[in-house]
Write a structure and sequence with these properties.
The protein is mostly helical. It folds into two domains: about 5-60 and about 95-200, no CATH class; about 65-90, no CATH class. Helices cover about 75% and strands about 0% of the residues. It contains eleven helices and no strands. The chain is flat. The mean pLDDT is about 80.
Length: about 240
């Protein structure tokens, strides 16, 4: 089931003009949407973990450089240690292969957040008067980040840029307008068919690019079928 931590809900509601009950309901919807997506798209969790593994298997630590950096850190001072963790002291060197894995990981996580944004907004609009404000509240919190996100970005090199989540939400909105909820869900049909980082750069052109790719694939299939048929005809004529 979906579990919300009261302190986290209160932190979201603090300083907002939105009724706390609406905040709780909206956050519960978001948690339920996340759970539903991972439950129904059975390959998604393994796909995300595989991308993390692709990145992690290339991690190397330059111990001499790390030791040199740590000489300037007072390990008995918790604040200094925290600053070191959230800086780039422990950041590993990133290879081109890791950069590719990080880009794909950022893209799929942005797609998850974008899908959740769109689905929750569609479900909540008729029932929660402050849906627009609540959606913006979540986006502002996402943009602000926190110590955990900062440490993760520095240690792993992955910054979950809020802009990418907004672009993913725009992509899903465009797909739904063009083809309805079925088309929106079809985006998750297979990991090889997921939108790319380039698709997030231009969400409105995603469907046109996908249709062009399908047309190209169909033309290749037709050409291969014609070659096979020609080969069979030649064999028949020789026999």
């Amino acid at each position: 089931g979906t579990v919300l931590v009261p302190a986290n809900v209160d932190a979201y509601a603090e300083g907002q003009s939105v009724p706390p009950e609406e905040v709780r309901l909206f956050l519960a919807l978001r948690e339920a949407a996340h759970a539903r997506l991972y439950a129904h798209v059975t390959w998604l969790r393994a796909h995300v973990l595989a991308l993390v593994h692709d990145y992690a298997r290339g991690v190397t630590i330059d111990l001499s450089s790390l030791e040199e950096s740590l000489r300037s850190v007072d390990l008995s001072d918790p604040q200094a240690l925290q600053q070191a963790i959230t800086s780039d002291v422990f950041a590993p060197q990133v290879t081109p292969a890791q950069e590719s894995a990080l880009l794909r990981l950022e893209t799929v996580l942005a797609l998850v957040e974008g899908w959740v944004d769109e689905v929750v907004a569609a479900a909540a609009t008729a029932h929660l008067p402050q849906t627009v404000a609540l959606r913006e509240m979540v986006r502002r919190r996402r943009a602000a980040g926190g110590p955990g996100e900062t440490a993760f970005a520095n240690l792993v090199g992955l910054e979950l840029r809020p802009r990418r989540s907004r672009e993913a939400a725009a992509l899903f909105a465009h797909v739904q307008v063009a083809g309805g909820p079925e088309a929106r869900e079809a985006v998750w049909a297979h990991p090889d068919l997921l939108p790319t980082a380039e698709d997030l750069d231009n969400p409105s052109g995603f469907l046109a690019r996908r249709e062009a790719a399908r047309t190209a694939d169909a033309e290749i299939d037709e050409a291969l079928a014609a070659l096979l048929e020609l080969g069979e005809q030649e064999r028949d004529s020789d026999s």
